[in-house]
């Protein structure tokens, strides 16, 4: 069975409440895995999220399945580099291809001149690491912050690694 396509577009301030709910639902599993209920996607307030959605250099895409926001991904643009974060898919729909559709949708939304895309995830997040590796992201280094260790992966765009 083929996964239906998502309607992928920029998340607006009007979508902030739904996005906050989606992220909290999606990141609970990760917080449980690492024994840390205070990870940023779970502690961000609605006001902080609204500010982030309006921030220069931030692009947040959402994936709608019908009228429901089922996934999102945030990109921070810094010069020739984009950093992915807050990548979330509704828990009841994980593993069905929605995350892959969102990940593949970022390239057309990146401004010209982006040479590399970075992403970080928990070092023990096996499914996340496998998804990124499948799409050309290569592990660069690990970094510890508090009790968590993050794996940082990079994908070179253009002739060096575009999909």
From TrEMBL:
It comes from the Bacteria. Keywords: Transferase. The keyword Lipid biosynthesis does not apply. Residues 6-159 form the N-acetyltransferase domain. GO terms for molecular function: acyltransferase activity, transferring groups other than amino-acyl groups. PROSITE patterns: GNAT. The keyword Transferase applies. This is GCN5 family acetyltransferase. It comes from Cellulomonas xylanilytica.
């Amino acid at each position: 069975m083929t996964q239906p396509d998502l309607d992928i577009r920029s998340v607006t301030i009007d979508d902030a409440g739904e996005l906050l709910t989606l992220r909290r639902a999606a990141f609970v599993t990760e917080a449980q895995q690492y024994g840390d209920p205070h990870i940023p996607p779970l502690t961000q307030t609605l006001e902080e999220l609204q500010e982030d959605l309006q921030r220069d250099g931030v692009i947040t895409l959402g994936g709608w399945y019908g009228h429901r926001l089922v996934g999102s991904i945030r990109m921070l643009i810094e010069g020739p580099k984009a950093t992915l974060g807050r990548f979330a898919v509704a828990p009841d729909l994980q593993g069905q291809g929605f995350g892959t559709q969102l990940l593949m949708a970022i390239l057309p939304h990146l401004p010209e001149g982006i040479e590399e895309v970075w992403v970080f995830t928990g070092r023990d997040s096996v499914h996340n690491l496998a998804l990124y590796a499948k799409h050309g992201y290569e592990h660069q280094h690990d970094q510890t912050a508090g009790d968590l260790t993050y794996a940082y992966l990079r994908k070179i765009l253009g002739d060096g690694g575009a999909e």
